[in-house]
Amino acid sequence: MTLKMVVPKGKLFNKVEDLLSEIGLTLVGDSRNYRPTLYGCDIEVKLLKSQNIPEMVALGQHDIGFAGMDWIIEQEADVEVLMDLGFNPVRLVSCIPEEWDWDEVKQRNIIVASEYKKIANDYLTRLGVPFKLLRAYGATEVFPPEDADMIIDNTSTGSTIRANRLKIVDTVIESSTQFIANKEILKNPEKKKQIDDLLLLMRGVMNGRKRVLLEMNCNKDNVQKVVDLLPAMRSPTVSELYNSDGFAIKAAIERKLIKDLLPQLIAAGATDILETPIRKAL
Prior knowledge:
Layout: E1 3-8, H1 11-23, E2 26-28, E3 37-39, E4 43-48, H2 53-59, E5 64-68, H3 69-74, E6 79-84, E7 90-97, H4 102-105, E8 110-114, H5 117-127, E9 131-135, E10 150-155, H6 159-163, E11 166-175, E12 177-182, H7 189-209, E13 211-219, H8 223-229, E14 237-240, E15 246-254, H9 258-268, E16 271-277
Parallel strand pairs: 1-4, 1-5, 8-9, 8-10
Antiparallel strand pairs: 2-3, 5-12, 6-12, 7-10, 7-11, 13-15, 13-16, 14-15
Helix pairs in contact: 1-7
Pfam family, one: HisG_C
EC number: 2.4.2.17
Protein name: ATP phosphoribosyltransferase
């Protein structure tokens, strides 16, 4: 049974393409081709703008897809979030001109520009300030100070906000790319099995990206000290070296820990250390 997958155009396309490739699926086409071919499975692919994906999946036009949490919330899309992939992490922030005082701004009736009408309305209502909301269609940061007192927009580094002489006064929500599914499709046993298998492989790839395989040797006097340093997924593998009184130790370690861990291992007596990338960790 053919699964219908929707993939975002633009900067997210390459990240999704890389993920599918590491699973073992080859996506042939680029972000200008709206109907690329996915080899290695029974999945039909279509490209859409990120903003359209949550609603299309919720309506059942597509079975599965990739979308930012910001657009899922904005569209109130009734979809099943299967996995947070962490791609393109952004914050939705409220910003005012850099020389303005935030406490003073909150005391008056403010004009706010945003592409995110629902999210902005909910946030401003919680804030308890009188406001007029303008729907922006791109380039939101150019509105203040002449056309708006505040903007609510997404940012990853804040550089565009600073370049337009604005300052962040609050974080509204945080967002990243989610792997989502239509809820009704998950009631279909055959399609659910296909989706579960795909999800298993995705999890394996994402876990693998976070870890490396460390292999090392040490003598029997140091083996316990070395093992005690290793935060392995379960416990490290330790085996005797052939024709020697030493041991070989192997463990999957979080990549972010390696920089500080290697000097400690060497000080504890580890030698011949090898670090290898992991393609999947299940």
